[in-house]
Amino acid sequence: MEAERCAVTDFGDPHAIAAQFAVGSLVKRARRVGFAAVLVIATVFIAMKARLTWYAVMDCSTDQMGALGEIVVSIDRYAFWLSVFVGIAGWMYIDSRGIPAAFTPEYRTQLRRFVLLCSAATGALLASVISDGVLTSLRLVGTPWSRDVLIPLVSMGIEVVCAGGLVVSIRGMTQRTASTGRAAGMR
Predict the structure, then answer these.
(1) Residue 44 CA, distance from chain mean position
(2) What is the CB neighbour count within 10 angstroms for residue 143?
(3) DSSP letter at 145?
(4) Rounded CA separation 20/158 (Å)
(5) Helix (H, G, I), strand (E, B) or coil at 102
(6) 80 and 128 in contact (C-beta within 8 Å)?
């Protein structure tokens, strides 16, 4: 019995051990969120390209979009490419961080920077998805209902689901960071 107690004591404080596991789990989650951000942005890009290809095949003109359409196309383009660059920067940033032995104030700061980068990329992606929705509605106004209209609608649905999933992932990351900080005794 005494030998068992000594063996358990040799492992160290159970709370410290649990905190180390929590930090390791947080590091893995942050890296998955960074990769997911880039993957989501790539998926949105594919959905956009599929819709644009469909427009070309169906010979949908851009005449009805007018000046508003040109402005929205510019917003869409710049917002999307901003999301690409900031999303990649966030992923590279968190992937380049080492795995800390404990949840330190320095690591918390790194996670805040990462979440800020991901939030900026997500905000830009949301602006792009909203712009895509406006452009899709401008192109489809007056188009008679048929199953051909499903392609742009489904691709818009994919974009919305991807952007929403990224928002949920970042929110979960923020909550996990806060709970790990509380478990580590940080406020």
Answers:
(1) 11
(2) 13
(3) P
(4) 38
(5) coil
(6) yes
pLDDT, tens digit (0-9, with 9 covering 90-100), for 70-101: 898 899 999 999 999 999 999 999 999 888 87
* Contacts of 83 by beta carbon, 8 Å cutoff, 6+ apart: 41, 121, 122, 124, 125, 128
Measured distance CA(177)–CA(108) in Å, rounded: 8
The token duo for 102 is 């404990």
User: In a 10 Å sphere around its CB, with 0-12 CB exposed, 13-18 middle and 19+ buried, how is residue 58 labelled?
Assistant: middle
Q: What is the pTM of this model?
A: 0.82
Looking at residue 100, its amino acid is: P
59 — phi, psi (to 5°)? 55, 50
- Alpha carbon 69 to its chain's center: 27
Looking at residue 143, the DSSP 8-state letter turns out to be P
> Which value, in Å, is the radius of gyration of the alpha carbons in the chain?
23
| pLDDT one-digit tens code per residue, 108-165 | 899 999 999 999 999 999 999 999 999 888 877 777 787 878 888 899 999 999 999 9
Chain centre to alpha carbon of residue 127: 13
For the chain, helix, strand, coil in percent to 5 are 85, 0, 15
